[in-house]
Amino acid sequence: MKVDKQTSAKPVLHHREEFERLLTDYHISDQAASTLANTTFVLMVAATASGRNTIIKHLTDTGKYYYVVSDTTRPMRLKDGKVVEHNGVEYFFRKEDEVLQDVREGKFIEAAIIHEQQVSGISIREIENAQESGKIAITDIEVQGCETIAQLKPDIIPIFVLPPNFEEWLRRIHKRSELTNEEVKSRLEAAVREYGIALEDDRFIFIVNDNLEDAVQAVDEVARLGHRDPAAEAQFRELAKSLRDQAQDYLAQYPNW
Hints:
Radius of gyration: 19 Å
Order of helices and strands: HHHEHEEEEEHEEHEHEHHEHH
Number of domains: 1
CATH class: Alpha Beta
Structural class: alpha/beta
Strand content: 15-25%
CATH topology: Rossmann fold
Shape: globular
Distance between the termini: 40 Å
Low-confidence stretches: 1-6
Mean pLDDT: 93
Helix content: 40-55%
Strand order of the largest sheet: 2-9-1-10-11
Number of helices: 11
CATH architecture: 3-Layer(aba) Sandwich
């Protein structure tokens, strides 16, 4: 693929001050709010290496789910001079002026300035596409972003995917790639924060990804059929607490890393 200036450039946010002003007191349009209210929307949350994206792929492969892709102003990433991302797959890579205009018109469900150099968010366009397809909208999202969407749509379905135990979780983290100690530390510290936020919010439904087929079925039963198992959810919430606490203990054992 030919690399043009947009894909090879370092991310720069030219209208940062206006984005900051608009996003500080952001309101979605009435039309966007109506579309969101009438679409089933599943938010998949997880700490690193829990298998969230694999579950999402299996659900979308059934033809019953529509994966919602976020917009971003940053350019596609490069590796060895070649573009390694695809428009409409990892993100919709859009021009900053276009995103800014959509923010002005309230066409994003949520949007934020990321790393002080780009704006990313979920466009109502994708929710409209899910609604028109007759499928359930589903996306992966950071735990902090759920609160913003929940304020607009109280009936969202926020699902937090858990590994079955701490030892298996560590194995999966190390299996993903050759990580330095510092990278492992960073991922575990982020996970501790994410577990803490989710455990403070009763809306989160915890599901364990031990057997992939069972995990996919569990998510589908909650999202499509509305089936809930209070006893299992209470058990999994205790597992989330245990994973958080074990991660904290593990980090404390290696103060110098």
